Amino acid sequence: MSGDETIGAMVEGEDTSLLIVDDDKPFLTRLARAMETRGFLVETAESVEEAVAKARANPPAYAVVDMRLADGNGLDVVAAIREKRDDARTIILTGYGNIATAVTAVKLGAVDYLSKPADADDVFAALTRTAGERAAPPENPMSADRVRWEHIQRVYEMCDRNVSETARRLNMHRRTLQRILAKRAPR
To answer: Assign residue 113 a region: left if phi > 0, alpha if psi is -120 to 50, beta otherwise?
Structure first.
């Protein structure tokens, strides 16, 4: 879709307020600019506290929320938006995709769950998708090695970056885990 078509896709008179919440300032700025060119009235926040305050003061019709923020969990923002506006279309963005949090996000009212890095076209498509419409499968799905690496990273983060505890939970030798953590993420 070109920029003209995407703006035309928005319904005239529709509430196009959009709250974008992410603690990655360059990504937040780029996405906000891209969504403005697609016809949204964008408001941004860099923390759970700031986002919840903005959501309660002026509940948006749309929201894009990062799962992990410096001061907490993006699901708290989704819940705050849902409290004030149950028709809001919310999307969760995360670098740590897993099924449990995707299910929780949907139960709290999120309409989609996108893995980072997601581009503006993916975000726009998810926000404007109709209820029965299904997302197309990804052209470049994660490899099995990448899925394994993501899982290890998620457990490592959950264990507050404690290698010994992570190795114990993953039933893995500590040195093996250290070698995996020292490598770059597989493609």
So the answer is: beta
User: How far apart (Å, rounded) are the C-alpha atoms in residues 187 and 173?
Assistant: 24
- Number of Cβ within 10 Å of residue 146's Cβ equals 13
Task: Please state the domain count of the chain.
Answer: 2
Of 7-16, 30-39, 117-126, 174-183, the one with minimum mean pLDDT is 7-16
pTM for this predicted structure: 0.67
> pLDDT digits over 53-79, tens only?
999 999 999 999 988 888 888 888 988
Sequence-distant (≥ 6) Cβ neighbours of residue 20 within 8 angstroms: 28, 31, 32, 35, 42, 43, 44, 45, 63, 64, 65
Residues 105 and 150 in one domain: no
Does residue 122 share a domain with residue 33? yes
**Exposure of 159 in the CB half-sphere (CA atoms within 13 A):** 16
Burial 71-108 (b: 16+ CB within 10 A, else e): eebbbbbbebbbeebeebbbbbbbbbbeeebbebbeeb
Q: In the chain, what is the straight-line distance between the N-terminal and C-terminal CA atoms, in Å?
A: 27
